[in-house]
Specification:
Number of helices: 7
Strand content: under 5%
Structural class: mainly alpha
Helix content: 40-55%
């Protein structure tokens, strides 16, 4: 069982007795490539071009952030059900992720009203920790409400 070095909590990333999910389904380390990430290029996944990234930044927000919030809350609930079998750091990390997803799901539709809250959330480091950093910041600012 490997311990995550990029998180202060030391959450496990594979072979975890804490979560009955395969490694590809759950990891606390987005920076560590998972099994699916390494095989993704063999099934046709590719990097987005600059024009595709710009187009993606301006798509409608829809309910993707609400769906991500629901998934994060479901994982938090499962971790809480497991009780003492879960390291406290993992539980705290998931609570922080839920807070970040709740923030993203609750952003206002008007772009100008999003800028200051997004900058504050970025200053807290949550975009780097739970998202794609600057890419997610730009996306949250420019997505259609």
């Amino acid at each position: 069982m490997r311990r995550c070095r990029s998180r202060p909590s030391g959450c496990t990333t594979s072979g975890s007795p804490l979560l009955p999910l395969p490694r590809a389904a759950w990891t606390c380390c987005p920076s560590r490539p998972s099994t699916t990430a390494s095989t993704a290029t063999t099934i046709g996944a590719r990097r987005l071009t600059l024009s595709e990234k710009v187009a993606k930044a301006f798509v409608e927000r829809g309910d993707k952030h609400v769906a991500r919030l629901r998934r994060a809350e479901a994982l938090l609930q499962r971790l809480q059900q497991l009780g003492d079998r879960v390291r406290p750091g993992c539980l705290d990390a998931q609570r922080a992720k839920v807070a970040h997803q709740r923030f993203r799901a609750g952003l206002p539709a008007a772009r100008p009203l999003r800028v200051l809250p997004i900058l504050l959330e970025a200053a807290r480091g949550r975009y780097e920790r739970f998202g794609r950093g600057k890419q997610a910041i730009v996306q949250d600012v420019f997505e259609r409400g």
